[in-house]
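user: can you give me the structure for this one chain? tokens are fine.
assistant: on it. calling the predictor now.
[tool input]
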Amino acid sequence: MLTLSFAASTFSIPKTCSNINRKSSFNGVRISHLLPSPALRSTTTRQSVVMMAKREEELKEIRTKTTEEINDEIVDLKGELFMLRLQRSARNDFKSSEFRRMRKRVARMLTVKREREIDDGIGKRQSRKLDRQWRKSIVPRPPPSLIKLQEEEAAEEAKESASA
């Protein structure tokens, strides 16, 4: 929360502004930041603790995977992000929070992948070279959500042809 105070020689300072030094010769605008009440700070602290716990749990899950599994999931998540961008551009219904969630998950996976490279003694330059090779070797495939959608459509068509 911000408070705005004016101080000038012809301007009278209200008595409610207790945080202003009344004997100051300051002429101008003073903007001061006020901290939220302790009740608000404790709820945000609790929320951040819960978020950190979820993040740690997710990192443990990612670290149990092999590097190949991580690479596959990165490709899948990037495909899902592409599908979300398509939905947004077509003005379809989608959850905007999924963008942030997926980007953060990809970043965590890339972080774990880089941690493993550092443990193996791979430097930054060599890592970038390996990353370029990996990107060239990726075989384009549809994201899991599109595959699921295609399977559902095929099942509906099969049901319609069986009933007709």
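assistant: here you go. The chain has two domains: 2-37, 46-145. The mean pLDDT is 79.
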